[in-house]
Each structure stands twice: as C-alpha cells, then as structure tokens.
Amino acid sequence: MSVTGFIGLGIMGKPMAKNLVKAGYDLVVYDIVKDAVDEVAAAGAQAASSVAEVAAKADVIVTMLPNSPQVEDVVLGADGVLANAKPGTVIVDMSSISPIIAREVAAACEAKGVTLIDAPVSGGEPKAIEGTLAIMAGGDSAVFERVKPILEKMGSSVTLVGDVGSGNVTKLANQVIVALNIAAMSEAMVLATKAGVDPEKVYHAIRGGLAGSTVLEQKIQKVLTGNFDPGFRIELHIKDLQNALDASHAVNVPLPLTASVMELMQMSKAAGDAGNDHSGLIKQYERLSGVEVRAGKE
User: Fold this and answer.
1) Structure letter (DSSP) for residue 115
2) Whole-number pLDDT of residue 8
3) In whole angstroms, what separates CA 118 from the centre of its chain?
4) Is the pLDDT of residue 68 over 70?
5) Dist. CA 286–CA 283, nearest whole Å
6) 32: Cβ contacts below 8 Å, ≥ 6 apart
7) Can you list the alpha helix ranges (DSSP code H) found in 195-273?
8) What is the DSSP string of 147-173?
C-alpha cells in the first residue's frame, strides 16, 4: 500500500496532516516537536523519529516548513529526504518560500530521480482545519495530477499555475494583496474610531460593498475583540514580504506599497508583536494615532 509522508506539524501542518488521516491515507509524520507528532499519531498516523525515516517509507512526501532554509535542510541535508528517498518519490513542498530556492531544490531533486512540486497555501489556520485551503502549485503537469487527490483533501481550490517555482510566485502575490488589505483595514478602522464612529458599525456598513473582502471578514473580529492569537504570525508575513521584495528586485519590479507595509510590520516586530496574528498590525496604527479600535468604541 502506498505511504504518504508529512514533515512539519506546526499551526498549519498539523491540521493538514490530520485531514489526510481522516481521508484514509496511510500517513507517516515527523516534526522536531515530539508533542505535535504524538498528537497526529493519536489521530491515526504513524510516528517517525526522523526525516530519514519518513523518506525511506513514503512514496509521496509533503513538507510544510517555515522558510527556505528549513526546506533546504530537510530536503537536501546530509540525512534529509533526498539522501533517503527512493527514485520516483514525489516531494510536495507546501511551505511558503523563495521561488528561486524552490527551483534550486527541485533541480537537485531531479538529479537524484526525485520530483518536487511547490504547492504553497492560503487560508490560514481556520481553512487548514476545515480542509478548504487555496493551493497554488508549480511543477510537471503529470506529477501534479498524481498528487492532486492528496491536495484536494487539504484544499477546496487546487490550481496548477505553471512550472516549479510558479506556486511560490503566486503565493507571494497573494501575500502582497493580503498584507495591503490588512493595512488598509487598519487605517480605515483607526480613522473611524478616532473620528468617533463605532468601528463595528463601519464594518457592517461596508462589508457588502466594494470594500468587502475575505481579509475583512476573517480578521475584523480579532481587531474588534483585541484577540491577536496567531492564525498567521506577523513574523511569518514579514518573511513572505521579504521573499516578495527579493523576487521583485530579481525581475526589476518595484513594489512600493509592499515595502511600506513591510516597514510597518517591522515596527510591530520591534514593539514585541512579532508573534501576534498579522491582523495585529493594527496595533501599530493604534500607537501612531493614540486610539484603540474595539467593538462599541465611539
């Protein structure tokens, strides 16, 4: 029977792995945090003690890691996936990383008879739990069709956008739009509150118009309640925006709005908010304006 591997059981990876178990996949999992491995194993997965063990057992290996260095280490490291995988293995890297690194890692895999598809996701922890992520993939179309049923158990939208690296270019475009939406929401709600208008009423008034968005719907309650427990941390969005700026500079595309929001996020990090949900960017606007945006505030 085919075995699927999953490496990286953080905020996103853990529920994604659980959804594969629920769907009936024979899943072997590993993470450097043993408690996360134990939790997914309790749901029905096999617990592995190392990356090498996952690579030796699995035909398809999903990775969900923080950034490019972790992907390079897990896949290309001395006792990593590539050193232990069988020829014909497919790696589906669902991390959000530099498209340049994704292509370099894919080339190293190809030289060893292993294929890599980059397939980052959007939707945050709620959609990871629901199994309704938006998944944007780059890679060989035949290999994509082979792994698409696996991806469909984690996402409601699964799209092949081009060659390897294209998935991460698409994710960076997504993250630019999300960051700018959060900044715009923050500016608008701080303006409303400072001007003496209840921000919750403003939200209900505008949500059905052109200003309505998925970002507004998903993030406004965190703002109105002041609960910035992370679904997606500011420090991770900083990582994504840095990758976007690096990629843009490589192809001579200026991103002035992205750069501005990046600096606001860096200010939030400097203020000790790096671990907050990215909707917590509004706290920086609140500090600048001397006002706090919460439901019922006028």
Assistant:
1) E
2) 98
3) 12
4) yes
5) 5
6) none
7) 199-206, 214-225, 234-250, 256-270
8) HHHHHHTTEEEEEEEESTTHHHHHHHH
Alpha-carbon distances, residue 73 vs 63, 117, 275 (angstroms): 12, 17, 24
CB 168 within 8 A of CB 190: no
Specify the residue for token string 């450097």. Answer: 32
296 band by pLDDT with thresholds 50, 70 and 90: low
**pLDDT of 198:** 96
Q: What is the pLDDT of residues 128-171, one digit of tens each?
A: 999 999 999 999 999 999 999 999 999 999 999 999 999 999 99
Residues labelled as active-site residues? 171
Please state, in angstroms and rounded to a whole number, the distance separating the CA atoms of residues 253 and 248.
5
Instruction: Return d(Cα 176, Cα 262) in angstroms, integer.
Output: 10
Per DSSP, the three-state class of 136 is strand
3-state DSSP: the chain helix, strand, coil percent, rounded to 5?
Answer: 55, 15, 30
**β-pairing, 46-47 with 27-30?**
parallel
Average pLDDT estimate for 97-120: 97
**CA-wise closest residue to 193 among 280, 296, 281:** 296
Distance of CA 183 to the CA centre of its chain: 19
State residue 231's pLDDT score: 83
Neighbours of 46 (CB within 10 A): 19
Strand partners of residue 277? 233
Residue 124: what pLDDT?
86
* Backbone phi and psi for residue 219, each to the nearest 5 degrees, phi listed first: -110, -15
Handedness of CA 82, 86, 90, 93 (dihedral sign): negative
Average pLDDT over residues 7-15: 96
